[in-house]
């Protein structure tokens, strides 16, 4: 057993790697009544081109297969898993995003029994031709529902405008056409490649015994040969240039919706470097577009935006983008004003005193987040797959200097990498 300690925030994480290759992390929270576990694989919707374990040729799978597989793992031959967790007093859920698939539960009682159930069902897929075919209809309805959602559509239109080849431009659930080509055999190939224990992590937090956790997981793990594998993912080269400047559609909505996207070119970062870039960029977006900013209040007072206006940066090793989001009866005017804003010198729009205020606010928010087991668990896994441990987050945040902000503003926010997506009312 290993221990990672950060005495400044009085937190520690216990760690053990099992013979199967599975990594288990545990953060003790004495006195907390709630317990939380998240079992995740480093596998998301963008991983649709890879070399299956045991093979030599790459395989391009249908769009949406990671999300489809998440749905199918909840299928059991005898009884619905939700009912099994419910009887134990636990609330279970799962999600698939661009980069990972996670299965999680929270409870106050019967934690170890719930943990045993979690480990067993994630490692025991029950796939038949019949239940795969049935799932296609269910997910098709989900896809159609999102296709009719203006907020979802304006977001993915923005991604398609920014990215030429990268699979992040594809809806996480895929398309009705793509999921209809999914077979039991393809699902097993994806499962056996990406649900290898060496590609997974189990994070647990609460007032619990780590020795008991290890004992339960070892006894619940599926007993088959799964040696550690170096998964070969294949991504088509993505140019630095954007795909198209502007995309516009009409849908049923009361007010036009818009996304302004800035495509990132500072890629292939991991660990501390990736986290620092993320923090720097989000501080800039906070300085420029939060309700406390001069720009926000100017737009709001002119009636150009509503309170549903904001911005955030998200990025991983192979992609990244900043998004400015809102609703406006004059979205193109908002867009032009954003362009005029980024044309200015960094020192003019990013004041040192505002930077210090936002940085201190973020430090405080992180420390407050350490009181939320959900905040810790979900961020731990996300950062872990970026080769970073959440206990070091505060130290990286404190390292950020004003000059880091100015440099990133100049390089990332340019007219050459910006796109506009609009959904207008019919």
TL;DR?
The protein has 426 residues and is α+β, with helices and mostly antiparallel strands.
Task: Give an overview of the whole structure.
This is Insulinase family protein. InterPro entries: Metalloenz_LuxS/M16 (IPR011249), MPP/UQCRC_Complex (IPR050361), Pept_M16_N (IPR011765), Peptidase_M16_C (IPR007863). GO terms for molecular function: metal ion binding. Residues 63-175 form the Peptidase M16 N-terminal domain. There is one protein chain. This protein has a seven-stranded mixed beta sheet, with helices on both faces. Strands 11-15-12-14-13 form a five-stranded mixed beta sheet, sandwiched between helices. The termini are far apart. The mean pLDDT is 95. It contains 16 helices and 15 strands. The chain folds into two domains: 2-233, 2-Layer Sandwich (Cytochrome Bc1 Complex, Chain A, domain 1); 246-425, Cytochrome Bc1 Complex, Chain A, domain 1, CATH 3.30.830.10. The chain has 426 residues and is α+β, with helices and mostly antiparallel strands.
What's the overall geometry? globular
CATH class of the largest domain: Alpha Beta
* Low-pLDDT stretches: none
Overall tally of domains: 2
Write the topology of this structure.
Layout lengths: L1 E5 L4 E7 L5 E6 L6 E7 L7 E3 L7 E2 L4 H9 L7 H7 L3 E6 L4 E7 L3 H12 L6 H19 L2 H13 L13 H4 L4 H11 L5 E7 L3 H11 L11 E2 L12 E6 L5 E7 L7 H19 L4 H8 L8 E7 L2 E9 L3 H12 L3 H4 L2 H18 L3 H12 L8 H7 L2 H11 L5 E8 L1
Parallel strand pairs: 3-9, 11-15
Antiparallel strand pairs: 1-2, 2-3, 4-8, 4-9, 5-6, 5-10, 7-8, 12-14, 12-15, 13-14
Helix pairs in contact: 1-7, 3-8, 9-13, 9-16, 13-15
